[in-house]
Specification:
There is one protein chain. The chain is mainly α. The chain is built from 13 helices and four strands. It has two domains: about 150 residues, no CATH class; about 110 residues, no CATH class. Helix 3 crosses helix 7. The protein is globular.
Length: about 375
């Protein structure tokens, strides 16, 4: 029987990562399939914190982290989950084979997070600085690098699926977002020191395609941006990447995503948490049955957006935006039962699942 799937084309743009050039990464070009990609981010950060602590220059906890730490300490279930998550993550790393442990033994041990206080010290460093460019798979995503192993433990799964905790953790993310809207967040776009560690204007960053067809002014401080967030949402130069298809039969991907999954006949309700790639419209639309029913039997495309890719959404349509909202959900969760082995860090198999449980923007358009 002939396939019922309509044509699905991927046109490779110049300079973008392809499967052939991807190296040791999973589909999506971000999640590493080797344990040490995360370690190469986390271990140097731990060393930097230890050096600051020894020198007496470690910054005090931000108020939002003081509040979160106090709240967790004051609620026994959450204190148990956080401490158990750290212990389980460290035990998992210790259980790895000797060859793998040697690969990540940068500082003489394979301890992941030293303890309860250390978790907040690392979070404090992350939310008071801008994400760094590097040539590892964790580029631009320091909090994922910190939590990649922990979120997959039994206690981590419970913690990061708990909506009360997610509401509290959102305040930490909001504080980081506030910092990333300020001029000090441009420290890694320093035109006077373009090759400083983590620089997004280094030769390596240019070679990685960060600036390919992007608007910027290399003569101005911060390349012409006033904050990290404005840099992260930089725009294409006029005329870049025009649409070459037939607008009556083809739809361009509205963002610079790598194809992850495609479903030609979406179901109204299904078990989206099992291993196979499933989409449940009822859950995608957060239980809003009247909206979910409209798309039953329709097509689902899911793409993966790397930190070095273009992050603005452009999808010109001759239609009307009927409704849009941001649905509260999880931030660092992965599919239960996924299991952790080198190769599945941070939810490699969880991408479709996250579309139905993670915090997400929902836009309903009508022709």
């Amino acid at each position: 029987m002939a396939s019922q799937r309509p044509p699905f084309e991927v046109i490779e743009a110049q300079g973008l990562l392809t499967l052939e050039a991807a190296g040791p990464v999973q589909m999506g070009f971000w999640v590493p399939n080797r344990v040490w990609a995360t370690a190469r981010f986390l271990v140097p950060l731990r060393k930097e914190i230890a050096a600051k602590r020894k020198a007496g220059t470690l910054a005090p906890l931000q108020p939002v982290l003081k509040d979160l730490k106090f709240w967790i300490t004051s609620h026994s279930v959450y204190r148990m989950w956080v401490n158990a998550m750290i212990e389980e993550a460290n035990a998992f790393i210790a259980s790895l084979d000797e060859k793998t442990k040697k690969e990540i033994e940068h500082d003489g041990d394979v301890l992941w997070i030293e303890g309860f206080d250390a978790l907040f010290e690392i979070l404090n460093e992350i939310i008071t600085t801008s994400p760094a460019f590097n040539e590892t798979a964790m580029v631009g995503t320091p909090m994922n690098g910190l939590l990649a192993v922990s979120m997959a433990t039994p206690s981590g799964l419970a913690l990061f699926h708990d909506m009360t905790f997610n509401g509290r953790f959102k305040t930490v993310l909001d504080a980081w977002n506030t910092f990333l809207k300020t001029s000090p967040s441009l420290d890694k776009l320093d035109i006077h020191d373009p090759e400083k560690p983590g620089s997004w204007i280094s030769k390596a960053a240019h070679a990685a395609g960060v600036w390919h067809q992007m608007q910027h002014d290399p003569e101005k401080p911060g390349y012409g941006f006033d904050s990290w967030n404005s840099f992260f949402l930089r725009q294409f130069v006029p005329g870049a990447r025009p649409f070459h298809g037939d607008p009556l039969t083809q739809v361009d991907i509205g963002c610079e995503t790598t194809p992850w999954a495609y479903e030609p006949a979406a179901k109204f309700e299904t078990a989206f948490w099992i291993k196979d790639v499933n989409y449940s419209l009822l859950d995608l639309f957060a239980g809003q049955r009247q909206w979910a029913r409209l798309f039953e039997g329709g097509q689902v495309y899911q793409g993966f957006l790397s930190a070095t890719h273009y992050h603005r959404w452009r999808s010109p349509l001759t239609g009307k935006l009927v409704r849009s909202w941001v649905e509260p959900g999880t931030y660092f969760a992965q599919r239960p039962g996924q299991g952790e082995v080198p190769g599945t860090w941070e939810g490699t198999e969880s991408q479709p699942y996250l579309g139905q449980v993670a915090t997400r923007a929902i836009l309903h358009l009508r022709a």
